[in-house]
Amino acid sequence: xxxxxxxxxxxxxxxxxxxxxxxxxxxxxxxxxxxxxxxxxxxxxxxxxxxxxxxxxxxxxxxxxxxxxxxxxxxxxxxxxxxxxxxxxxxxxxxxxxxxxxxxxxxxxxxxxxxxxxxxxxxxxxxxxxxxxxxxxxxxxxxxxxxxxxxxxxxxxxxxxxxxxxxxxxxxxxxxxxxxxxxxxxxxxxxxxxxxxxxxxxxxxxxxxxxxxxxxxxxxxxxxxxxxxxxxxxxxxxxxxxxxxxxxxxxxxxxxxxxxxxxxxxxxxxxxxxxxxxxxxxxxxxxxxxxxxxxxxxxxxxxxxxxxxxxxxxxxxxxxxxxxxxxxxxxxxxxxxxxxxxxxxxxxxxxxxxxxxxxxxxxxxxxxxxxxxxxxxxxxxxxxxxxxxxxxxxxxxxxxxxxxxxxxxxxxxxxxxxxxxxxxxxxxxxxxxxxxxxxxxxxxxxxxxxxxxxxxxxxxxxxxxxxxxxxxxxxxxxxxxxxxxxxxxxxxxxxxxxxxxxxxxxxxxxxxxxxxxxxxxxxxxxxxxxxxxxxxxxxxxxxxxxxxxxxxxxxxxxxxxxxxxxxxxxxxxxxxxxxxxxxxxxxxxxxxxxxxxxxxxxxxxxxxxxxxxxxxxxxxxxxxxxxxxxxxxxxxxxxxxxxxxxxxxxxxxxxxxxxxxx
Amino acid sequence: xxxxxxxxxxxxxxxxxxxxxxxxxxxxxxxxxxxxxxxxxxxxxxxxxxxxxxxxxxxxxxxxxxxxxxxxxxxxxxxxxxxxxxxxxxxxxxxxxxxxxxxxxxxxxxxxxxxxxxxxxxxxxxxxxxxxxxxxxxxxxxxxxxxxxxxxxxxxxxxxxxxxxxxxxxxxxxxxxxxxxxxxxxxxxxxxxxxxxxxxxxxxxxxxxxxxxxxxxxxxxxxxxxxxxxxxxxxxxxxxxxxxxxxxxxxxxxxxxxxxxxxxxxxxxxxxxxxxxxxxxxxxxxxxxxxxxxxxxxxxxxxxxxxxxxxxxxxxxxxxxxxxxxxxx
Lengths: 662, 329
Known about the structure:
Structural class of chain A: alpha+beta
Largest sheet of chain A: 6 strands, antiparallel
Number of strands of chain A: 17
Oligomer: heterodimer
Number of helices of chain A: 24
Strand order of the largest sheet of chain B: 2-11-10-6-7
Radius of gyration of chain A: 39 Å
């Protein structure tokens, strides 16, 4: 092996630092044995470095490979996923560490580290992760720079060098980021399916939404193109529960399939224009449903509209996802969709028995000959008069609707929605529970609506022959503030009571949190969700029109600037270093003499020159002698005093004037 | 000439010939060369190609996951890859090479040249390598000092005046992903002596003296007697046995009865081919010099009178080195 190929001493630690940085966020989900093996391999290699141990022999290496393969086979069942891929990379790091001998191994290890750092972004795209990713890149690049050893391998210099190189690369990166076309996925890739479902789930039983009200995590960020709906219209529909088993509301069997989505031809878009146009950025839910106001339509790829006026996505939302929506509020439409027999049966379904008191009461109301609207009004009035809205409702037993309506009479949105829909169905009116979010906090600076988990809400929809499906929110009858001003003002005393510190009461923290959310929103809008549409519009706004010529110009101008910069840099740093002060002073002396008519010949030694001056201009002789002596002393003995003296002498040396006077 | 390349019409050698000719026009031989854009070449190394492969993989990852952060990283690495050659190039551009001294060597050994490598401007130059491939050559930095003196060696096989091939000056700074190099002809010429090959003991007295060689010569093989030791006598000839026996310090004196002077004669080695003869003569010359025994050289067409000392040795070895290459004599 050539000596140059052997790893310089500094580089080992750099490699381990780079591997550690790239793997650190993955330690959370990697099997423990991989983490342990990696640590052990590093320890072994360091022991080799200290000379206490030898590199493992062939048998040990073979054994390690077999163990690793076996371990991976045992740890992972599904191979077509991201985690096993990262695990495989981590294992290859580990095994490579056992034979980290020459520079080629080091390069390989570091290039792999770049890849591992990139997989980090597939898991998380938040700002902290992005910053951490930058840190990783800097460390890996420094490690690469330190591989060559010698002067630049010391930690500070390698770090400085890599920062300088990366800083120079950033402008081009930004340009490429903007202009490089984005192709869609070339093939289906495994998605990150770790992490449990958060937020609203596919079923609702009493207490679920109370849990949600304890979380202030952002759920949606919505920006509007045009009018912003008033607070009482901000119902973000996500799920429709139509099956009730006496306690739990759920979606029903066939719902999760695609068969309930509309075909464009079945239900053409309304002829009138949409009232609201907006863009929703949804946090990861690991489920397929999206959130929009009724009746929605989306042009975003992979988003389809369902039978019951919702949007769902073909693939679950594993990361933040943005979609464009146009909404036609139902009251603006006058086409009443008839209810099919299947739909009618679905939305009238009730358990065979249970909740007898409610059923009796409703029968009584129907006996008075009231129609759907009247019964609904009666119910809402009942809520309004007797019920309280609370985040801490008492627990309910088997006949939950009965207990709620006639005993406890305290509840949260899901209690009201559930009991209302039950009662309406009992009255023979098609009804369903809708879950989603209601309201949201308007962020004025960035012009978007921030919807948090605690804005989760459940309400009802009933169907009447005259108006079709219409929204009824029983909670609004009890607590209009909830709809108008949000949960925080509706249940001020109870709001976020369980959190460790009542941070939401400190206004400055609230402001800071909002600021942070705004930054996040910006980040997401500009970077994460930058897709080919945004690319087109940005290019259009930059260039006016997208033609190959203009794109070429856009690329050529920065390229030309960069090229000129590089040339200038090469020119200036390649030019001779500034001459020392002493020689500059001596040159000044020569220039003055030249003006007086005595030119120094090229290559003439100072002393020879002085002799010549003495011969040609005797009257200058004393000064010239002094100056030459001072120069020689300053230049060759490095005497700072002599330099000062030379300066002083030159100040009085004006051969032109002397020559003129004589 | 002995180096007729086998299959010299093959493509590889044609190519080599063409590039050499092109280089000799582009960068003619000179003792003093400053590297600039006209002499520098730059290409990615194998690590650089692997880096491109990683970029391609990252692009696939970013495309398939529609992940802009992965894209950003991909483009950052692409940009880094675009920035690096500038640094690698700047690291070599403006480096000045000057031949200080080209030494001499024996065939089969390494010939060493001394170069002065300086820089134009104050920019630090790191990890410069100067070598005659496939030798490793010298690896050095110009960071704090403005110039360095480096010694590089190449193996020499043939005796005579050997023109060194073009030097390779290269650098992979800063990240090893690009290699910038130049092929510099510093007009280095080595004087290569024949490879010393033993031909038995020194041929003392083997040659009949020519002309007036009747006088006895000191420093032969035959013991001539003892004389009192005088400062300056060789310690090797001190009669230690007698001294140990309690007597004064004596020197043993030798002389040669047949021929007094040592002649390294071409004709002594008749029957061997030219190069072997020269090698043998070379070996003798070295041996004689080591034993401090004055020697002369007789070659067809030239004679060097017996003497001792470095300059004499130099003359003798040079004569051997430059002995014309001939088919037969």
